[in-house]
Amino acid sequence: MSSTLAVFDLDGTLVDTPRGIVETFTAAFATMGLEAPRPEEIRATIGLPLERAFGSLMGVADDDPRVAEGVRQYLSAFREIVLPKAADLLFPGVAQGLAALEDDGVILAVATSKFSASADALLTSAGLKHHFRMVVGADQVAHPKPHPESGQVILRELGMDGERAVMVGDTTHDLLMARACGMRSIGVTYGVHGVEELRSAEPTWLVDTFDDVLDRIATASVRD
């Protein structure tokens, strides 16, 4: 049987970074002398590329110079706030689970709304980077999630088709990308988006833990 490809989101799926992301956004706004948005407003932007998130939170266009400054401050604060504790932020079962999938011959990749350098740094700090054949960040595509381009790049580069792939993510952005690529999808309920929001994107499966993710990948016949 040909290999299965499992594509993972990063924030809120593999690493419990949402609280750190809120802290990082807050620090970025403070550095610029601006009042920070409420935590729930920041959380609502998780899963979007940084420019879109800052543009939305500031109420300005994505190409506004203040957005570029916000992104710079965010990336600096992220290195200080989140990266040092990345290994402690892994969701239960992630480290062992990824190793088990790799041992079973599953091809692993990441499609994230993070910039590629930040994604690589987070995966490296968390001790996960070596598991993944590819990592595609928002700055490596013209149209980030929920547009299908990130998934299409991974499928093309790894020589896979959507019928042999499954996307795992905690937001509708991940699930909508998967559908547009012809992938099955696993929505995880322990991340940013709630159950009803995830259901609105019609995932193939909804699960509550990373162990459940492993069970779905291991037992599902991904359109043999």
Describe what this molecule looks like in 3D:
This protein is α/β, with parallel strands linked by helices and 224 residues long. The protein has ten helices and six strands, in the order E-H-H-H-H-H-E-H-E-H-E-H-E-H-E-H. It has a six-stranded parallel beta sheet, sandwiched between helices. Helix 1 packs across helix 4 (65-81), helix 3 (50-58) packs across helix 4 and helix 5 runs parallel beside helix 10. The protein is globular. The model has no long low-confidence stretch (mean pLDDT 93).
SSE arrangement:
Blueprint lengths: L4 E4 L9 H14 L7 H5 L6 H9 L6 H17 L12 H10 L3 E5 L4 H10 L8 E3 L12 H10 L6 E5 L2 H10 L2 E5 L6 H6 L4 E3 L2 H10 L5
In brief, what are we looking at here?
The chain is an alpha/beta fold. It is built from ten helices and six strands; from the N terminus they run E-H-H-H-H-H-E-H-E-H-E-H-E-H-E-H.
